């Protein structure tokens, strides 16, 4: 039975990847940070996975900032595959904690690679680094492919640049099977609530149910190439199954603005948005509403507004990937388009909103706090 170790297993991608690897017959180990509240909600359904009487899913306490701890865990598990998905992954937050981000997202990758090397596992353990389209930042070529020069625009992206190159260096210096997946944005109902797509699907679902009134956003004109996390973790696994390690861009090749994502989500809830104002005065007004998904809103109600708090010191305005190499070499194609993904996300969030509304009507609901997003 192959063994995999996943950092960042409690996150969006970690949970989908763990499910995929368990389905493929792996024994799956994950590194979990100690937190004052539970951080395993995306994994709780896996915690009792047994095969032939043996537990095939195990969590280990650890942190990417703690080298000895990582070395001990890797030494104990001796994984065939190590997926480094752990990171301080929020671009805007990285401006607030740049040194921590550099330590975890940059040096964290080095700690893992060095542990594999000093433990004598360089020939056994295959290494996947969660690299990112944020490396392209201020884009030098469109669409972006494996050969496009990097120009990172945030402490997060600069830290990930280090991780990208140290992965390449360990491959070249020590002959390790180590590779970078340069993944463009990918989302799902498990996406963290402060990333823009999930913030939109969740807040609009609450608004549709009359439980919040306005979704405050930053740059509505940012353009992204959004795919589905479930499709993208398959690619992470495939990259470690090849004869030779290589780096791949993973993207859909289609681009949408934040504004369009709002419109797609609103449409899935039976609402049509008309935009008024410009730039920081921009507001999204509801022009028409249909059906029972949005009985909490009125025609003409403002449901989206721009709040400059969400602007970044340096913004990545546009990203569009060229997944041609992955198509040709690995036969991979994303299965889910942005409309289907938004429908799935908002369907999930609408169900939660309805449940909370019911609980609230019976005086049983916890506080809703939109300011957390
Ligand atoms: P999430 O933010 O959902 O998950 C991040 C994971 O990293 C969580 O499990 C988190 O733990 C863990 N983590 C954070 N800090 C540390 C630390 N100091 N030590 C150990 N673990 C830590 O991210 P995604 O699942 O969306 O992304 C996975 C990876 O892919 C990340 O590295 C991200 O930067 C990268 N990426 C993501 C893309 C996307 O669009 N989703 C695109 C390209 C790259 P906890 O639950 O305790 O917070
Ligand atoms: P990103 O994702 O920065 O691309 O990083 P995010 O969803 O945070 O932002 C996408 C774009 O939307 C604009 N935006 C807002 N963003 C947030 N979070 N909140 C808002 O209110 C808002 N309004 C507009 C942003 O300015 C940006 O242009 C994600 C992360 O998963 C990274 O870890 C990963 O590496 C990249 O995707 C690829």
Automatic annotation (TrEMBL):
According to the UniProt entry, its GO molecular function terms are: GDP-mannose 4,6-dehydratase activity
Give the cofactors, semicolon-separated. NADP(+)
Gene it is expressed from: gmd
Q: What is its EC number?
A: 4.2.1.47
Instruction: Give a short account of what the protein does.
Output: Catalyzes the conversion of GDP-D-mannose to GDP-4-dehydro-6-deoxy-D-mannose.
Top enzyme class, one word, equals lyase
Q: Does the keyword Ribonucleoprotein apply?
A: no
InterPro entries reported for this sequence: GDP_Man_deHydtase, NAD(P)-bd_dom, NAD(P)-bd_dom_sf
User: What taxonomic classification does the UniProt entry list for its organism?
Assistant: Bacteria, Pseudomonadati, Pseudomonadota, Betaproteobacteria, Burkholderiales
Pinpoint the NAD(P)-binding domain residues: 5-345
Reaction catalyzed: GDP-alpha-D-mannose = GDP-4-dehydro-alpha-D-rhamnose + H2O
Q: What is this protein called?
A: GDP-mannose 4,6-dehydratase
| Listed Pfam families | GDP_Man_Dehyd
Task: Tell me if Acetylation is a UniProt keyword of this record.
Answer: no
Belongs to which family? Belongs to the NAD(P)-dependent epimerase/dehydratase family. GDP-mannose 4,6-dehydratase subfamily.
Which keywords does UniProt give here?
Lyase, NADP
